[in-house]
Every structure is written in structure tokens, then in C-alpha cells.
Amino acid sequence: MATAAPTLSRGRSAATPVLRVGAGRWLAYAGIVIGVIFFLFPVYWMLATAVKPPNEWLTNPPVFIPSRLYFTNFTDALFFYNGVKGLVDSAIVAFSSSAIGMVIGTLAAYSIARFRTGGTNLSFFILSILFMPPVAVAIPMFLFWSNLGLVDTYIALIVQYLIFTVPFVTWLMKGFFQDVPVELEESALVNGASRLRAFWEVVLPTVRPALVATALFALIFTWNEFTFAVLLSRGRVTTLPFILPTLMESHNILWGDIAAIATIGALPVVIIAFALQRYLVRGLSFGAIKST
Amino acid sequence: MAAVVGRRRASGGGRRFALLTVAPATLLLVGISIFPLLWALRLSFMQDSLLSVATPHFIGVDNYAHLFHDPLFWSSLGVTSVFAVSVITIQLVAGLAIALALDRLPRYQQVIATILLIPSILSPSVVSFQWRQLFDYYSGPLNYFLGLLHLPLQGWTASARGALPALVLVDFWEWTPFMVLLMFAGIKSLPRSVFEAARIDGSSGWQVTIFQTIPLLRRVIAIAVILRLIGAFKIFDIIYSLTAGGPGTSTESLAFYTYVQGFRYFDLGYSTAMAFVTLILITVLARLILGFMERPIGRSVG
Fold first, then answer.
1. Residues of A in contact with B205 (CB under 8 A)
2. Is the ipTM here above 0.90?
3. Per the confidence metrics, is the pTM higher than 0.80?
């Protein structure tokens, strides 16, 4: 069953929790309410600042509810503080790296899931790359890109991001391919289809939802990526995560404008996450719960 | 199961197909991870500083030896250890508690889990910006709340004593939701029968939690601890954006000190030696945790 792990509330009926003692239930409610407030307050504060007029950015006591909606922050952020460039650069890097990662990773995942290519060593090697600290490879990669004269270019970031999109896509798709019954391809092969056609026309369509989910996760990671963006950019290629700290340094007081850019950067990710609810566990835990 | 059948099939003719499809990923990953790592290993045995006039040359283990006499290396190791132990402990406790609470909700579990997850999926630079605002001494809501409670105002990331705890708070906010997600998924994958048997025995809810649920979650807990350990050892983003290692070197972690040596002082050999020590530390610690958590006491969850 392809979606056994990611469906959070289906496995067991939501009405029969692990604990079922009356007194504890109110404690649980209180905990959840406090948790939601704590984890959402900073997000609310960013959203509120993004629509506050300038005279409410830096007050004491702070303004909790903006007196009016001041959308000029967004136009200022986009057109005076490189917001548009940041959006475009983030989109170029995220989409390219995710697309290439999807193709390369999906092929490898199919090979590993069906033919156990490379045995456990190869799949462990691919997974372990996800856990490598970026700083460990940053210096040789920086030397590599600067020898090619490619520091601060789209190509450098796009290829660099494959270091996590490819392993991530491979790992996740491997789990999904393993759930596809092998009889599907067998009948296609018996009917004279080539391996490639069987893969392309029979297997891929059955995992289409998983492909979409995996691609969206890859987009989230590349859209958000910070460390390589900082280490491999010098100001020509400026993704949103690169722009924000720069703005915080140089325009420390422009809370509203920076908040507007941060909001623009956060919005796509949050929307995608809600669209992906069903896949969240498997996608974010790299299959730690079920498929290892 | 399908994989086993697939393996038997593979001998049938898909060998070439299997190798061709796995080749691009393997070559690419060797090219952008293994090759740079080997290059870095070589570099770590060299004197290679972009600021020095001397041509790069091999100096054996001098870089590694130097690490032992570098007080900043030891203090960065200390910062990283304090940070890692603090965040892992509080995130594990809070994550488990919230996940158990979530499991008790009669409905909307999935939606609330997704809402709670928002901090973990935001870009670290968005997270840093949010907390920069909250920490602001004059206009930040945190000091405002402290003032309401008649508590002394804090400098947060700007104070030598408060900066590391402030970063722990940010990391707690950013990654506890991820912990909740893992624990919640772990709880959902537990077999019902265990709890029903316990209830028939007359165990109370808390007893079930402490003696049944948590031991059964060992494996998930081990994985969560390892993931967060790795996260804590490579912590760079919020330090870069919020404190830049300061005040002084009070928040200079291993990863950040590696960055400083490599990208500010351009001492490539020394920086890569440090990166390797970090990598070895992570690997050893992860192995220890896995070994400790997967000892065959009780049942495994998977």
C-alpha cells in the first residue's frame, strides 16, 4: 500500500488514542494550544510587520495589531530591495536543480528498487550524503568552481544543490517504487515492451502522485537552501535566503520591507506543505519510520 | 517483497538497463561529494593558505596537531557540545510530549500537525529574520513580555552570556516541530494490541505511556536524536545570520569556526582538517547512539 506511512490519521482511528484517561485529555488540549501559539507567534509577527506602516515598526511598546494594512512594504521590498531579483534567482535555481534531480534521482531509484543495483552499499552511500555537513565539501567545491570561473553563477548553485536533491529524490522514490507490484512491468515485458518503455509507460504513471510530492519537497529544500547560497554567491546570483541576511546587515531598521521579502519567501513553502500533508512524514523523515 | 522478486528478474536481462539508469546519479554524487571529500582530505595535510606567499606544500599531520593547541577550536567544540546536548534534550522531551498530546485529539490531528510543522519548513534565513525582530532590545515583543512580568530585560543574541541560550531557543523553535512529526508518526505505527492488553491489565494512561509507548519508540527516538545531532553539528545558518559567532567567540560553533578559518582567513588546509574532525565526530557519535538504542531490549518498532 503506497501511502501507508504518510497518512497520519488513517492507520488507526483518530478517536482511539494511545492514552484515554479523562483528566489527561484537558492537559493534552492545553499543551496543543500553547504549542500552536508558541510555534505560530513568530510567523504572525513577521506577517504583521510586513503590513505595518513605517511608524509602527520600531515602537516601544511594540504594536501587536497593525493600525492599517500598509502594502507599500511589498512594492518597496520587490522593487527597491532586490525582491524581484531574489524571487527570480530563487526560482531559477530551485526549479532547475529540482528538475534535474528528479530525472537523475528517479532513474537511480527505479534501478535500486527493482534490480538492487549496487546492493545496500550504494543505497547507504546515497543516503549518507544527505547527512554530510556542507562545510566539509564547501572549500574544495569553492576551489573547483573558482577554477572554472563559475563562482557566483546559476550553474554552480544548480549543480551544487544536486548534492542533496539527487540523494533525497533517490531515497524517497525508491520507497515508492518498491510498493509498485512487479507484475505490472512483467506483463508489459511479456508483451514485447523494452525496459525503458515498461518504465516510462507502465511504472511511472502509477507513481505519479509520489513524483509530484517528491518534486515539491525538492523545491522546498532548494528554495530554502542557505549555506551553499552564502558560500558560493558573491552578489550576482542572489537567492532569497542570500538576500535576507544581507538586508538585515545593511538596512537594519527597515523591518517592514524585510518582513515583506521574508513573507514572500515563506509563502510558497507553506502552501506546498499544506498541499503535501499526506506525504509529510515519509518526505521529511527520509523514510526513517517505515521504509528503512 | 517486490524487491526480492525484482532481484530474481534482474538476471533475466535488465542488467544493462539497471546500470545505465543508476549511473548518472552515482557519477554525479561521486563527482560532487566523494571527489571533493578526497580533495579536502589531501588539502588537510597541506599548508595552503590563500593569504600566504608560500606555495602549497605537504606538512603531514601539522594541521591536525595544531587543532589540539588551538584554544578557539576547543571553545568551538565546547559551544557545539553545549548546543547539541541542550537542543537534543529539550526537543526530544517537548517533541514527545506534544506528539502524545496530538495523539489524544479526537480530530484535526493531521491539520494541526501540519500547522505545527511550519517552523521546520521555513528557510533558516526567514527564521533568523523573525527572531532578530523578536530579540530586538527596544521594540521586540520578548522584552516587552519580560517587562510586563517585571523581569529584567535581556540582550538576547547581543549579550555574551545570553547569546548561546538565545540560539538554543531559536533552534528549539525551528526543529521541535520536526521532532513532533517523527514521534507522532512513530506513535501511529505502534500496534494497537499492546495498549489494549495493557488496559485490560488495568494499567493507567501514564503507566502505558512510560512503560509501553516510550520503550517501543526506541528506534524512532534513536533516529530522531541522530538527525538532530547531525543538525546541531552542522549548525551554521542561524549563527551566521543572528550572531556571526559573537559576542566575542561565545557562539562560534565548530561549523562556524571552520567557515571563519576557510572563508575569512583563507587557511584552506587548516579549515578542511577541522571539517574532517567534525565529520569523524558525527560518524562516531551516530554509531554510538544507534548501537545504544538498538540493543535488543524490548521489541523493535520497524
1. 19-21, 24
2. no
3. yes
